[in-house]
Write a structure and sequence with these properties.
- InterPro entries: Mannan_Polymerase_Subunit (IPR052086), Nucleotide-diphossugar_trans (IPR029044).
- It comes from Humicola insolens.
- It is a single chain.
- The protein has 379 residues and is of the alpha/beta class.
- It has one domain (82-376): Alpha-Beta Complex (Spore Coat Polysaccharide Biosynthesis Protein SpsA, Chain A), CATH 3.90.550.10.
- Helix content is 29%, strand content 19%.
- It has helices at 15-36, 42-47, 106-113, 132-151, 180-183, 189-207, 229-234, 271-278, 332-336, 351-361; strands spanning 94-100, 122-128, 160-165, 212-218, 222-224, 240-251, 256-261, 267-268, 298-299, 318-320, 327-331, 366-376.
- The strands form 2 sheets. Strands 1, 2, 3, 4, 5, 6, 7, 10, 11 and 12 form a 10-stranded mixed sheet that branches.
């Protein structure tokens, strides 16, 4: 019998083909769902905060859509149980890395990802200005964060990440540009360092949680550190400790890559500096590294020994009276005790140098490691 015109004869599907097809559909659905939802281990899920008002350094898991949010829990914290030791890795101590950021540098982020300390114990905190450069940096930072926290293996994802924006009228920002030449003009230092101090304090007070053991201040332009930076600094068990910040550059005289000191805010005080300060008015600030203010302080930047030099020890310590913020490791208890970054002249010092003086007044000492180097981006 003839078939009607246009009729299609269906062939019975093979069972193997159906099985493969179903498996493929299930795989695609699993991939789409898992790519948008971080797959954390049970240990991480158990430690996640149950409410958005929980401490900011605890990762937060969103409730399912349509679920009624429970009231915030009443939680008691015994800070005596928070350890800050020379063996943070063995004791599973939580690290808070804080970075004021005006511009995004990919090398900074890449270096951050290379840190060997377990990322599940690291919380990142950033504060960025509401400027054109700050808006661009925020977008770039958010892009890298989204990729790391959703697409990277779990071991590379950080415990939690917090981004703050400065609540300041853009017209009040002390500098129109973040170019290195403008940033380091002496005439710009008081306004610039005061704004930096306010940003640091806002970031610190908004992110320091009850389980934080150490706070690592890391400059947004620090692009190279040893992967073991956290463990190396913590092993000294000092309240405040800082490495030496250098800068790699091309030496046109030797036609080779070379390095030079960068951070001159790590210093040992001098009689000359104290005498200069004694003659200053109450609102004047003494800045380091300027010919107009020859302090004759001992700068840690110039205490570094060359590679191979006799007696060179990476972990040699020197006491400091002033510190910089390029890479600064602080026991959380120092900040909890009230040591912050003065945005005003504090004994004629301001920001990180003022922080060192304030911490010392509270009984906390600072040390530096002249031969242990981190590297700042060379503009």
């Amino acid at each position: 019998m003839a078939r009607p015109l246009g009729a299609v004869r269906l062939r019975k599907a093979n069972s193997v083909t159906l099985t493969v097809g179903v498996a493929l559909v299930l795989f695609i659905l699993f991939f789409l769902m898992s790519s948008s939802t971080p797959d954390f281990s049970p240990a991480r899920k158990a430690a996640a905060a149950l409410h958005p008002l929980s401490p900011p350094t605890s990762p937060f898991r969103k409730s399912a859509a349509g679920t009624k949010l429970k009231p915030p829990p009443v939680t008691r914290y015994n800070l005596n149980n928070v350890t800050t030791t020379s063996r943070p890795l063995e004791n599973r101590e939580n690290i808070l890395i804080l970075t004021p950021m005006a511009r995004f540098n990919q090398a900074y982020w890449d270096n951050l990802l290379r840190l060997s300390y377990p990322h599940e114990l690291i919380t990142l905190g950033f504060i960025l200005p509401r400027t054109k450069e700050g808006n661009l940096a925020t977008r770039e930072l958010q892009t890298r964060i989204a990729k790391t926290q959703t697409q990277s293996p779990e071991r590379d994802r950080f415990k939690s990440i917090i981004i703050l924006r400065e609540d300041l009228d853009p017209s009040l920002y002390p500098l129109a540009t973040q170019d290195e030449h403008e940033r380091h003009k002496l005439a710009n230092q008081k306004a610039r360092r005061s704004a930096m101090a306010k940003a640091r304090n806002s970031l610190l007070f908004s992110t320091l949680g009850p389980s934080t053991s150490w706070v690592l201040w890391l400059d947004a332009d620090v692009v190279e550190t040893p992967p073991t930076l956290i463990q190396d600094l913590a092993q000294h068990d000092k309240p405040i400790i800082t490495p030496n910040c250098f800068q790699r550059y091309y030496n046109s005289k030797t036609k080779t890559m070379d390095e030079r000191p960068y951070d001159f805010n790590n210093w040992i005080d001098s009689d000359t500096a104290r005498e200069l300060a004694s003659k200053m008015g109450p609102e004047e600030v003494l800045f380091e590294g300027y010919a107009e203010m020859a302090t004759l302080r001992t700068l840690m930047a110039y205490l570094a020994k060359e590679d191979g030099e006799e007696g060179r020890d990476l972990h040699e310590e020197v006491p400091l009276d002033g510190v910089g913020g390029a890479a600064l490791m602080v026991k959380a208890d120092v900040h909890r005790d009230g040591a912050m970054f003065p945005a005003f002249p504090f004994y004629h010092l301001i920001e990180t140098e003022g922080f060192a003086r304030m911490a010392k007044r509270l009984g906390w000492e600072a040390v530096g490691l002249p031969n242990y180097k981190v590297y700042h981006y060379n503009e």
